[in-house]
Amino acid sequence: MAKLEEQVVACRLCPRLVRHRERIARERRRQFRDWVYWGRPVPGFGDPLARLLLVGLAPAAHGANRTGRMFTGDRSGDWLYEALHAFGFANQATSTRREDGLALCDAYITAAARCAPPDNKPTPEEIASCRRFLLRELAILTRLRIVIALGKVAFDAYLAAREAAGQPVPRPRPVFGHGASVDLGDVRLLASYHPSQQNTFTGRLTRASFHGIFRRARRLLDGPPPRPRSGRSSS
User: Fold this and answer.
1) Predicted TM-score (pTM) above 0.70
2) Into how many domains does the chain fold?
């Protein structure tokens, strides 16, 4: 994981993203004028023995692109870490900076893209370029049983990574929707709306419905392990 983190942080493969993340880090937002922005790709983090994987979209311009840690320093992170703490996956309910003492338990957080994109919209080519890092993480995280995809982009990115790794994906391809649950044999994929302000401020995503995803994940992990399937390994 340490070697992979070094490779992620050093990546400069997508010129548009490099320009954007570095410009944001130079200009900064007024309320963060005293910060030295991270301004680089943001690696995944968490428990290397995790059974729960969370896949997000990309670092926020003044969130993870500022702090250097996924979902840290913005309102999406406030929702996420509150839920993780409530269901025993984090030691605290807030995440403000890399040195704040946060630790994940049985959970690992990553994203479809590792650089803050303009308008929060990485291109398909940029997501494909970042897939190499998600593939490496999936190879290392051998105990996974549950994957929570935060938003459609993350949902599709995870399924694409499975296909690239030669793992089975159902046909027809699963359709994203909040609360969707897909049995992939070795893991179960759960789908949630992303806890972005666009979703939380409008009420499209409520705390109750968001926490419901994590409650389901906790129940699945606390229950009996999945039965091995013929011709497939079980984690």
Assistant:
1) yes
2) 1
